[in-house]
Amino acid sequence: MLPDGKKLEYQNKAEEYINKPASLGEDIDIDDYPIPEEDQVGVSSISEVDEGVRESMKDVGMELEEGKSSGTYYQLDNNVLMSEMYGDIEVMPINQAMEKYDLDDYYWNAVNIKDKYTARTELELTKGYFIRVPSGVKESIPVQTCMLLGDERKSQNVHNIIIVEDNAELHVVTGCATTKEIKSALHVGVSEFYIGKDSKLTFNMIHNWGENVHVRPRTGAIIDDGGSLVNNYVLVSPVKSIQSYPTAYCRGKNSKASFQTVLYGKKQSKMDIGSRTILSGKNSSSDMISRSITEDESHLKVRGELIGETEDVRGHLECKGLIFSDDSILHAIPELKAKKSGLDLSHEAAVGKIAEEQIRYLMARGLTEEEATSLIIKGFLSLDIEGLPPNIAETVDNMMEMTLEKAL
Amino acid sequence: MLEINNLSVEAGDKLVLKDIDLDIHEGEAHVLFGPNGAGKSSLLKAILGDPGVEVISGEIIFKGKNIKDMPMHERVKLGIGIDFQHPPRVPGVKLGELLELIGDRDKGKVKEMAVTLDLDDFLDRDVNVGFSGGESKRSEILQVYAQNPDFIMFDEPDSGVDVESVELIGKKINKMLDKEKKPSERKKSGLIITHLGYILNFMDVDRAHVLYDGIIACSGRPKEIRDQIIENGYQGCIECCQMERS
User: Taking Cα atoms as reference points, which of A59, A40, A76 lies closest to residue A149?
Assistant: First the structure.
């Protein structure tokens, strides 16, 4: 429960912002997308779930066999399909967590209500998950979460909170998607991450939306002393529009945030995706890497921002892109903002084409031009992700492999 | 194995090879000498089918087929391999992954070769990314070994490589070209470009040619020609050769 008056305070703020467009991305009339009805359809086993839904889940990296996760949270529209915990990691729907715990230190702390999407999530919440890793618990098997939209022209407004207490470790594999028959929809997802002292969170997310789906994630992470966040994001299938700018607050000393983003713009997709780290903790650091490709008539804005609030912080930002179509636009916007002397921030950005020399080299090894091109593209989009335990690295590799195979 | 007749080649509208004739039989290794700009690399490109050069006349017969108009990757499938002088970096493509894709040999054998080339720690690394000159050269040898072609072209496998590596690479090439087998059992053929000729101390080569200004100006015994070049320079070597002919 929130303290008296707190809920009202958030609701008042939300009322104030409910018509305010976001500062980035095209404006969406949210009234076109009512929230789906709640009809309890929880299942005790994933096998009870409709096969089409399961396929959509697999397409965003969910491994549905037993024993593949240390906890699961699967949501379809406004219904929790499964919410299970198999060990010490607590997993439950956010509304239950709100009743069970005082979440005042977590609810709307890493993300603010500042536009119509966050406002609506407060006013018309359609659940979301709560994950808490108690102090000292380190689990190398991932928690799997999946948010699915299967209701035509509806809006999902979820609020997720992940708390990794001190000296703990959590790996999350998450997928968000519309089911195959959905033509248009709106997904709004507020995600707040709290990473305790000397703790670690890796958050691996794959999106797979339809060509007429708008997506507005709002993500913030607060990282304490010695804590680290690794955030991997993959979107290689068409979407109507997506705008997101996840932000890590490296407040603790020696805290660290890494963002790795892989984007493939197709058809008429409009993507405006960034990552931002605010380095205010002594000796905190951040690496942000993105790889993007545009083809067809897609428009991509790839943003990155490093803000150095104090001395002795380090950050590096790398944006690389390939543009394949004259009707597409690839716009890289790396930004550095330094507020103190004695820090070290850098960026590099490059947009270009596949080097002919590389294609010829691989063809001289017997690959056809198509095989060579697709191998190079796959290589370009594959990120070597550091700091993951081997099984998670393998999971992420497999996720990448699978989504890229489909994309190419 | 390979028969080139009257081959003329242009690179960027410039005639770089004129009426070249070259015959390399099964089991033979030939070496190609020549100053910079003589057209050595263009000849390899023409044989390989690299679109960077254009064959304007003549024929290239490989295993009895005229491959002049065949695309590069099909020539490779037919059994032509190349060891590049300056291979490009291919970020994101692991050496091990590439070896599996192009490999025709048993994986265990390729792995063994990687160990003897001191490249076993490189299989998880991106092809040529951050490789030193010598490492790239050895990686080329490893890739060609995995491909197991019948006819292999080596474009300066010894340039920019330390003395010890030259010996290692020379011996590996020797092995790949069946030179450790009895002459009657040799099935592989090769064409090696080298500037220095030092690598020839570790290899058995059957015949040498000097490419000069787009023509094969001289052919003969490898070590004799090399010694001539070292003593009298390319010009002197060719004059000597022409005197012998007349």
Answer: A76
Q: Is B242 exposed, middle or buried (0-12, 13-18, 19+ CB in 10 A)?
A: exposed
Among A291, A360, A374, A386, the residue to mutate for chain B (most B Cβ within 10 A):
A360
Chain A residues whose C-beta is within 8 A of a chain B C-beta are 355, 357-358, 360-369, 375-376, 378-382
Which helix (H) or strand (E) element contains residue A80?
A: strand A79-85
CB contact under 8 A, A361 and B93: no
How large is the C-alpha radius of gyration of chain B?
Answer: 18
From the candidates A262, A356, A361, A401, which should be mutated to test the interface with B, based on the most B CB atoms within 10 A?
A361
Torsional sign, CA B169, B175, B180, B185: negative
pLDDT tens digits, one per residue of B172-188: 999 999 999 999 999 99
SS3 A85: strand
B243: which residues sit within 8 A by CB, 6+ positions away?
A: none
B91 touches chain A (CB under 8 A): yes
Question: For strand B54-62 and strand B65-66, is the pairing parallel, antiparallel, or unpaired?
Answer: antiparallel
**Does B92 contact A382 at a Cβ distance shorter than 8 Å?**
yes
Q: Which domain holds residue B194?
A: 2-90+151-163+177-245
- Please say whether the beta carbons of A246 and A210 come within 8 A: no
Pick the residue from chain A with its C-alpha nearest to B85. Answer: A361
A360 contacts B50? CB cut-off 8 A: yes
Q: Residue B211 maps to which CATH number? A: 3.40.50.300
CB B87 to CB A369 under 8 A? no
Count Cβ atoms below 10 Å from residue A393 Cβ, excluding itself.
15
Q: Is B181 within the bounds of a domain?
A: yes
Q: Is residue B136 part of a domain?
A: no
Selection from B18, B5, B105 nearest residue B62 by Cα: B5
Is B136 an interface residue toward A (CB < 8 Å)?
Answer: no
Query: Looking at chain B from residue 163 to 192, which residues have their Cβ under 8 Å from any Cβ of chain A?
Result: none
- Residue A155, token pair as written in the block: 């809006």
Q: What is the pTM of this model?
A: 0.86
Residue of B nearest to A379 (CA): B92
Average pLDDT, integer, range B50-68: 94
**Mean pLDDT (whole number) for A171-179:** 93
Q: Retrieve residue A231's tokens.
A: 């955030």
- In 10 A of CB A352, how many CB atoms? 10
Q: What is the pLDDT, as a whole number, of residue B9?
A: 96
B102 touches chain A (CB under 8 A): yes
Q: By the CB < 8 Å criterion, does B50 face chain A?
A: yes
Is residue B131 situated within a structural domain? Answer: no
3-state secondary structure of A108: coil
Residue of B nearest to A360 (CA): B50
Beta bridge partners of A307: A278, A337
**pLDDT grade, residue A386 (50/70/90)?**
low
Q: CB contact, 8 Å: B145 with chain A?
A: no
Read off the tokens for A356: 């002919």
Give me the number of domains chain B comprises: 1
Mean pLDDT of A269-282: 98
* Residues contacting A45, CB < 8 A, separation 6+: none
What is the pLDDT, as a whole number, of residue B244?
A: 64
Residue A103 Rama label (left phi>0; alpha psi -120 to 50; beta): alpha
CA distances from B156 to A74, A182, A355 (A): 59, 59, 23
